[in-house]
Amino acid sequence: MLAVNFSVVGVAIAAQAEPIRVKDLPQSARTAKLLLAADPTPIAVPPAETGPIEITLTRKKAKTTPPTSAPTYTIDQAEINKQGANSLAETLKGQPGFAINDSGFGADIHTGTYYRGASINQSVFLLNGRSITTNVNTYHGNVDLNTIPVETVDRVELSSGSSSTLYGSEAFGGVVNVITKPGTQIQKFNSQLQFGSYGQQTYRGSYTGAIGGLDYALGYDRYKADSDYPVPVGAANRGTDGNLTNADIDTSSYYARFAVSLDPRNTLTLDGTKTTSRKGLIYFGFPFQRDRLNHDAFNLGLNWRSELAKGSTLNASVGFNKDYFHTFGPTANLFFRQGRLNSSGLNFRLDHDWQVASKAKLRWGFDAKTAFLTSEADSTNPSVLRFNESVKSSRFTPSLFALGTFNLSNALQAEVGLRQNFSSDFGGSLNPSLGLNWAASKAVAVRGSWVSVRRLPGLDQQFAYDTVHNWFPNEDLKPESGSSWTAGIDFKPSAKFSGQVTYFGSALDDRIATQPTRLNGRTVSQWQNIGRVNTGGVELALQYKITPQWKTFANYTYTSAKIKSGAEEGLQLSQVPFSVAQFGVGYENKGWQLNLMANYFSGARRAFL
Predict the structure, then answer these.
(1) pTM for the full model?
(2) Can you list the domains of the chain with their CATH numbers?
(3) CB-based contacts of 226: which residues, under 8 Å, 6+ apart?
(4) pLDDT (tens digit, 9 = 90+) per residue, 125-140?
């Protein structure tokens, strides 16, 4: 593969139109100019008073209270670059708690993304603090992390526990917040070109800068590949020429962000992303797959941040999401079918972070989301012609939330949260959260969290017929509900070695999945509340600095997600691997880097549930 990178940094210098007058200079510069022009006449200095000089030294006590009651991880831009990640899926793969079965721009996302055993629809995904979750479950799920490039990502924040109080009670696994790059005071241009075999091409570019009080960031990313490489005889989708077929992909992403400082206390930010993806599907290794997928996503958000007073910050944001999903292809080479899911959402959020007292902090606010879905199913197969339809549905879900943080002592911190959820079709629910952390010493902190969780059925699960898999909707679905918890230790015995060990678990009732169902005298696959699923596991994150140049890390996650009722009682939830791990070692010196990483995946049960 051939790769070419360009980076240009420019500094704009404004021309001086008028000569500088002494009175216009800052005080320090004006004083210096007057001193240079003055006569060197000795200045009479009165004798200094003699006597004892008293010096007082004040030692500021270090804060030992951990910031949260649940594990938090931040993946910054430098770490993303070391991974060599191209997409958000590749960035999250191998992180503590995450199990991503397939990653890359051409990856098959049928196989799933799991955070502490919870599916992608049982976690909350944010872009600059705004929800981009659509809760679409049919076909490929709601958020394709493989099509979100990292060219414009500044950092990714992973959190859980009380974060569900702030961002959504459907965060069974946790909250993933993607923060995009801000503008810069100097103009910067970066670009990257890559060319590889089998039609692989990558084009990336970003431009940041500022004009007066306005800073901006622009980005573009495109990945294209034919993926027509030779495959063995008998392999799925092997063409007559011996090469893989229908595995091509073409994905483009555009990004823009503008921020203006209205005054020292108020900032207004506008950002937007647009992603288009066109690719062939070869999921599950079925032979002669010819299905195609068109997937487009758009997100636009406006945020106002105001420093009301010392220790009081108000954030107000409004966001619009649109996700278009179109899959189509032949059925048994005789018929043709296609499915469209066109979802959109309008979100509003008001968030007040208030330091009420020296040892008490309150974060409270209001969330409102409106979701719209248009579903179209079309097939020429005579046996399913009667299910061809176009369905429109919508849902309004406002919420109130409050999270109090109390420093009970210099080493003990407690969190108490409440989130009141409402919905236009399932009524309301009150979901509390509790958290505690204790700094046992300067090197060790112990933490724990518990949260009540609830996820509403997707509009597609209730009303949309899946013409690809022949899955039937179910208007009688109940919300998934239960609780999630964590307990763990953070330790840093030396400046070179640190780590986190976390036990996580959840108990989920009325989990929604497809299962065989008798409907109108025949057996079909239909969305059902299959019963209870208990999840438990351990995640480990270790970092060790061998020398100033050499560093190493290890992440490991074990997940047990057992079905506790129904036809598959006692089995591991399908697609959830028992163990995943990532190990890496890196060298950095004088701008040169060498990073080696290894991944381990134990495998997962293939059956659908």
Answers:
(1) 0.84
(2) 73-107+141-601 (2.40.170.20)
(3) 198, 199, 200, 247, 248
(4) 999 999 988 778 766 5
